């Protein structure tokens, strides 16, 4: 099924927002965006571009002063945040903004409890979230006695326990080691595979290139790009013009383009395949051998 035929979850229509009533300082201006089931969308932009301001409109933490955010056709200005939490889960960049309970398990269970689920359902959701993020050994620990990396996983587990249709994650892999980052990536892919959607805010261009279906770029509160990942993430002049960099493997590929390398690769496997194809094309009678 093509993206435009998938069910529409969130529709953002010409949304603008300003802080403190300052007409001359709009944080975001006339932003349009659609989020559909089965999509992983990356939201990019340099610091101050409006990414977090925009994302906080999706779960009702901020309300637009102009335009609309519709979730299944319902205007977020008319719904309380706890109702929107059933549809949109938000993991903040700083996990300490979300953690407060005496144990990891209690913290993860707070959201489902606040939504009115019974004890059995709360236990099921907490157990599922703990298992998915590998937190079984620390379920009884106080969150603030854990490392920042682990606290980030706990905060994400609390969001997963809400079972939202859309996950909004602000820099989810910052401070994570390879094992923890892999857990997060597995969660993102499973969310999409299960028919949900993900909005990923990240400065990690390699992560975006390897995971996102679509890339949206904000500059000065305006959307300046909204398109397929390959088209956006391989356009060097456009990215640099918006204070962004190519994914590292794409940068290497483009440096080798004068020698025949494909310039639009997005991940290491694509690079290896393209390099092997180039090598064989130039050495048709030789076979590459391992070490």
Topology:
Layout: E1 8-18, E2 26-36, E3 40-44, H1 51-58, E4 66-71, E5 74-75, H2 81-84, E6 88-91, H3 104-114, H4 119-132, H5 148-160, E7 166-170, H6 178-193, E8 197-201, H7 205-211, E9 214-219, E10 222-228, H8 229-233, H9 236-241, H10 248-255, H11 268-282
Parallel strand pairs: 3-8, 3-9, 6-7, 7-8
Antiparallel strand pairs: 1-2, 1-4, 4-5, 9-10
Detailed description of the structure:
- The protein has 291 residues and is of the alpha/beta class.
- Helices cover 37% and strands 21% of the residues.
- The chain contains eleven helices and ten strands.
- Strand 9 and strand 10 form a beta hairpin.
- It is globular and about 70 Å long.
- The mean pLDDT is 92.
- Tell me the series of helices and strands, N- to C-terminal: EEEHEEHEHHHEHEHEEHHHH
Task: Report the mean per-residue pLDDT as an integer.
Answer: 92
Q: CATH superfamily name of the largest domain?
A: P-loop containing nucleotide triphosphate hydrolases
Overall outline = globular
CATH topology grouping of the largest domain: Rossmann fold
Count of spatially separate domains: 3
Under the CATH scheme, the architecture of the largest domain is: 3-Layer(aba) Sandwich
Helical content class:
25-40%
Radius of gyration: 21 Å
- Any low-confidence stretches, pLDDT <50, length ≥5? none
Measured by DSSP, the beta-strand proportion falls in 15-25%
- Give me the count of strands: 10
The class by helix and strand makeup works out as alpha/beta
State the helix count: 11
């Amino acid at each position: 099924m093509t993206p435009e035929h998938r069910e529409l979850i969130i529709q953002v229509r010409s949304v603008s927002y300003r802080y403190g009533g300052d007409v001359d300082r709009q944080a975001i201006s006339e932003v349009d965006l659609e989020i559909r089931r089965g999509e992983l969308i990356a939201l990019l932009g340099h610091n101050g571009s409006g990414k977090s301001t925009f994302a906080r409109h999706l779960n009702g933490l901020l309300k637009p002063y102009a335009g609309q955010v519709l979730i299944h056709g319902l205007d977020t200005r008319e719904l309380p945040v706890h109702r929107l939490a059933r549809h949109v889960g938000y993991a903040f960049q700083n996990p300490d903004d979300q953690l407060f309970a005496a144990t990891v398990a209690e913290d993860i269970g707070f959201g489902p409890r606040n939504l009115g689920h019974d004890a059995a359902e709360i236990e099921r959701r907490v157990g599922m979230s703990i298992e998915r993020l590998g937190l079984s050994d620390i379920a009884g620990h106080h969150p603030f006695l854990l490392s920042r990396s682990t606290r980030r996983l706990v905060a994400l587990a609390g969001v997963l326990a809400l079972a939202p249709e859309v996950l909004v994650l602000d820099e989810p892999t910052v401070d994570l080691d390879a094992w923890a980052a892999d857990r997060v990536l597995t969660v993102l892919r499973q969310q999409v595979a299960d028919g949900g959607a993900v909005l990923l805010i990240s400065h990690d261009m390699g992560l975006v290139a390897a995971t996102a279906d679509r890339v949206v770029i904000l500059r000065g509160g305006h959307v300046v790009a909204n398109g397929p990942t390959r088209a956006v993430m391989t356009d060097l002049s456009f990215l640099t013009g918006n204070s962004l960099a190519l994914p590292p493997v794409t940068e290497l590929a483009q440096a080798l383009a004068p020698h025949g390398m494909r310039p639009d690769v997005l991940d290491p496997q694509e690079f290896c395949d393209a390099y092997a194809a180039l090598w064989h094309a130039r050495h048709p009678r030789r076979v590459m051998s391992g070490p």
